[in-house]
Write a structure and sequence with these properties.
It is a single chain. The protein is 63% helix and 3% strand. It is mainly alpha-helical and 430 residues long. The strands form 2 sheets. A two-stranded antiparallel sheet has the order 1-2. A two-stranded antiparallel sheet has the order 3-4. Strand 3 and strand 4 form a beta hairpin. Helix 3 crosses helix 10, helix 5 packs antiparallel against helix 6 and helix 6 runs antiparallel to helix 9. The longest helix has 32 residues. The chain is globular, with a radius of gyration of 24 Å. 32% of the residues are buried. The mean pLDDT is 94.
Amino acid sequence: MAGHSNYVPKTGLARWLDQRLPVIRLMNDHFVTFPTPKNLNFWYTFGAILAVMLVVQVVTGIVLAMHYVPTADLAFGSVEQHIMREVNYGWLIRSLHASGASMLFLAVYIHMGRGLYYGSYKAPREILWILGVFIYLLLMATAFFGYTLQWGQMSYWAATVITSLFSAFDQIIPHFGTALSTWVRGDYAVGDATVNRFFALHYLLPFVIAGVVGLHIWALHVTGNGNPLGIEVKGPQDTIPFHPWYTVKDAFYLTLFLIVFLAIVFYAPNFFGNPDNYIPANPLVTPSEIRPEWYLLPFYAMLRAVPNTLLGVLVLFSALLTPLFIPWLDTSKVRSYRFRPVMKQLFWVFVATCILLGYVGAQTTDAAWHLGEVDIPLVWLARLATLYYFAFFWALMPWIGKKEVTRPVPESIAQSVLKKGAVLTKGGEQ
């Protein structure tokens, strides 16, 4: 997509470096002059926001790792006493890391929602989408490992519950699930070995994520950016250089995002936290309700919605892996939901369904909505929402793609932009 390089070294040092290691040429071709569709909107800025937030997480995580003690006896004290009270600005670094994880996932969900709405998964961008899903799965694993490292009550019991899920595979292959659960924990029960290996994985995986992010960006620059219209670039008239047009735009929205992020860090650092996690882990006292962080709640609700443990685990893993198949499940020839009236409505129902699952996952297992004299158990809402989640991808997306009558799609990006500009100019003159 970048095409022939137009970079010309202007100094002797630049020419010398360009002949041996053309890193400046690489940066120029892919981050300065890279041809980008001229109609990208606000929702496309979250890719840059995610890159910055990943750097924040890696840097703060490395500093925290220097002071963290990965043992069951000392882990909680190393966080709440040493890092928070004794390390210079440890409270700030820990708050940036903890709240940053939630803000990172907020940006991830917006980024994935934008890709889904504008059809960024369709050919020729299947690999780009699949790499994005792998990044998401790695982020979830990394976040779970990090959540357990505080070694408070919720951390300990979350680790106990999640690692115990693997024992459900005993129903398929006898003793296999128990052996797998023991292997994941590193012992027969959650303890020193568990926190030590979770710490190692939590430290390692961000660098794996960074590598996959590099592949993700590489794939993006091979196929080129998608755009809200879902049509391919026809020529130079459809694009503008990435710099300064989109670097300025990304910087502006990144600044707004960081303002919100830092407001949470300084004024509500425990906004995303759970009170039970400020109590040291106690294997003899089980919290009244065990729940993960908010970004995992929809999948937790799916797990609880199924009464059979094995089926619940299979539903959970199926829900996580389903996005990998979206490029082939969508049978429509039109990418963007802007021109697909039926799928557009179904998409927003899907978003509402995910929010509902998150809400249900945050409630107690026996919670219900009281409507007059009728009580509606939330577990049934979770079951209906889970059914819609799978139906959206595996039934509605393939069927609607073949039957839907779509709206006319513009012939080119430039035509759409000029037409929109003419309408705005005419409106201003009136």
